[in-house]
Amino acid sequence: MKSAWSEREAAEFVERYAADGIGEDLALRVYTTRLLGSEPRLVMHGGGNTSVKGRARDVTGTDLDVLYVKGSGWDMGTIEPPGLPAVQLDPLLGLAEIDALSDEDMVNLQRRNLLDSKAPNPSVETLLHAWVPRTFIDHTHANAALVLTDQPHGEEICREVYGDRAAIVPYIMPGFDLAKAAKAAADAHPEAEGLVLLKHGLFTFGDTAQEAYELMIEWVSLAEARIERGRGSVFAAAAMPGAVASASEIAPAIRGMLTNRQRGEAHEGETAAFERFILEHRTSPAILAYVGGSELSRYSQVGTVTPDHAIRTKPLPVVLPAPPAGDLAAWTREARAAVEAYRTAYTAYFERHNPRYDGTKRMLDPSPRVVLVPGVGLFASGRDAGGAAAAADLAETTVDVITDAESMDRFESITEAELFDIEYWSLEQAKLAGAKEKALARHVVVVTGGAGAIGRATAAGFRAAGAEVALFDLPGPALDAAGEAGAGLAVPCDVTDDASVDRAFGIVAARFGGVDILVSNAGAAWRGPIADVTDDVLRESFELNFFAHQRVTRAAVRTMRAQGTGGCLLFNVSKQAVNPGPDFGPYGLPKAATLGLVRQYAIEHGWEGIRSNGVNADRIRSGVLTDEMIAARSEARGVTEDAYMRGNLLGREVRAEDVAGAFVSLALARATTGAILTVDGGNVAAALR
Fold first, then answer.
1. 40 in Cβ contact with 255 (< 8 Å)
2. From CA 513, how far away is CA 442, in angstroms rounded?
3. What value, to the nearest 5°, has the Cα angle with vertex 207 and ends 205 and 211?
4. Which residue, 553, 676, 688, 547, is CA-closest to 610?
5. Nearest 5°: CA angle at 216, between 212 and 217?
6. How many C-beta neighbours within 10 Å does residue 566 have?
7. Contact 177, 185 (CB under 8 A)
8. Does the global pTM surpass 0.85?
9. Using CA atoms, how far apart are residues 149 and 186, in angstroms rounded to an integer?
């Protein structure tokens, strides 16, 4: 590992923050914290922390000794000065004289001594930073250091690598007790340049930001060199099927297996509510070698590589069999049985350890967060795409650390009881109790015609409700722009082509794990007198305005069935389906057929919990109703364009956002199927009879 320190960049940070009255030490603390946080082999997803001791003035004008320490919720890779809140140092130093302090009291006392009451909670390791008498302190969960410590003889190896330069601290859960142990180790070795926390990570000290940072880089490099010196063969390969299924083929089934069935607000006899997860798939030669190892069931079931991973990944992953290409029915049964066995084992694990807390802990959901599939890779789950990606990153780190540890000797984690303590840490339980999810969190939505006006508005509506969104549209600048603007996952798709549709749904399955809601929105208007229109024009309109709806819905239902968690089909029909206008037969006829399609899916799939509803909209500025068409229709009726667009009972122009709101409301209407919601400002002639 190489130092990324740059004198030019360091000077820029000092100059940038000086304008805000921030001193050089804190500016450089921010700079080196970012250097550490931008290297995933050192820190990821909120892990690690840094500090600097200095002086600050409170509101009374009194100068105080303070500790600037990383605050909760800040990422080291992007931290700014507010992410290092100032805590009065003297009250923290006084705590070293007491024998015990609960986590809650510790957090409360640290908050009481913040100079800014609005600042984030200081790190749970604040006392450790305070009690070690060095100016700059860096803490990482460096992969290479974990490889050395996560072994039966980890302490011996670390003493060999670092000698008297490091004081070694046995594994203790973060908090007051760890701070006491670290202080004792540092006091006993006053010349130590840092600490090795077994099964946890590294602390390095310095009188300057550069010194502490570059010492961390040096220590990690020493660990890397020791790993290479001791490396042997790693994983013997297990027997595999001749060909394995792809990630996109098995992802919906896995997503369904992980889903927690909850009665929620459902009444007796109703379909149970589902607590879904978003998935992320990862694969690489290293991952495939890991999941394909003949001893996977041993080394993958030992525990996490550093304790706090358990909060995002649970202590253990689930291992599924390799999926043979072709018929997956038998594999699905075996995989489902493995997941159910995991849930049973997790419940037993909770029941073994909850009595130590007098039964006060509330069991988290028992579904695995990481799924290992030989021949395919790993899947990680989260309540949203960001959570799934974070869990996947940690799972990849686990692969790297265990691979290196097994190449030297044998991977060893903390005990099951210690894993429970960190997973059910009271500070984390408090966060969960206060967490609120949006109405469509954990749902995946596909919107066809996603790059158009209605498609983008619909995507925005579902994102605002908490869903993950994929936009299907023809490849081109419009789709690219929608993706780049963050409207959703941009997926090139020709909805009139079977192979293109299958490929697009495969992309979504591999990216998110499956589909819960389909908004079949793509369409275009063909016009002309029905007696004069050619068969080719009529067939072309039917291909996009009817058969494409059937094509994408069939693919969505196939995915929903694999998940086994119901679903929601939403169709953009048209008022033309019930109130046809002159010269719009080529458009209205296939839309009338689509109206029948809405109801057919409701009839045939309601028993599976798959709802089917439609929206009849009128006069929406979009790719169907273009500016040119608005001008022509207004002129034909002898009214202004504004009057034409407001020609409804409410006297207001209906917008794409109104259609989007209708789609979202239907997605939330759990007891509604086979319905058509009219969004036209009021048109009695278009009312359903």
1. no
2. 11
3. 65
4. 553
5. 120
6. 19
7. no
8. yes
9. 19
Place of tokens 């992309």: 507
In whole angstroms, what is the distance from residue 165 CA to residue 195 CA?
Answer: 9
Judged by phi (left if over 0) then psi (alpha if -120 to 50, else beta), residue 629 lies in alpha
Give the model confidence (pLDDT) of 46-102 as tens digits.
789 999 999 999 889 999 999 999 998 899 999 999 999 999 999 999 999 999 999
Q: Where are the alpha helices (DSSP H) in 231-328?
A: 247-258, 285-291, 296-299, 310-313
Distance CA 402, CA 564 (A): 34
Q: Are the C-beta atoms of 483 and 471 separated by less than 8 Å? A: yes
Whether 140 and 123 have beta carbons less than 8 Å apart is answered as: no
Measure the CA–CA gap between 290 and 283, rounded to whole angstroms: 10
Q: In the sheet that 377-382 helps form, which strands lie side by side, from edge to edge?
A: 278-282, 377-382, 370-373, 318-319
Q: Are 223 and 161 in contact (CB under 8 A)?
A: yes
Q: Determine what percent of the chain falls in helix, strand and coil, rounding each to the nearest 5.
A: 50, 15, 35
**In the prediction, which pLDDT does 304 show?**
96
Strand pairing partners for 617? Answer: 679
Average pLDDT over residues 289-295: 96
Question: What pLDDT digit, counting tens, does each position of 581-617 carry?
Answer: 888 888 889 999 999 999 999 999 999 999 999 999 8
Q: Which two tokens stand for residue 462?
A: 């579902």
Place of tokens 């997503």: 255
Query: Hey, what are 395's tokens?
Result: 């799972």
The span from the CA of 389 to the CA of 211, in Å, is: 33
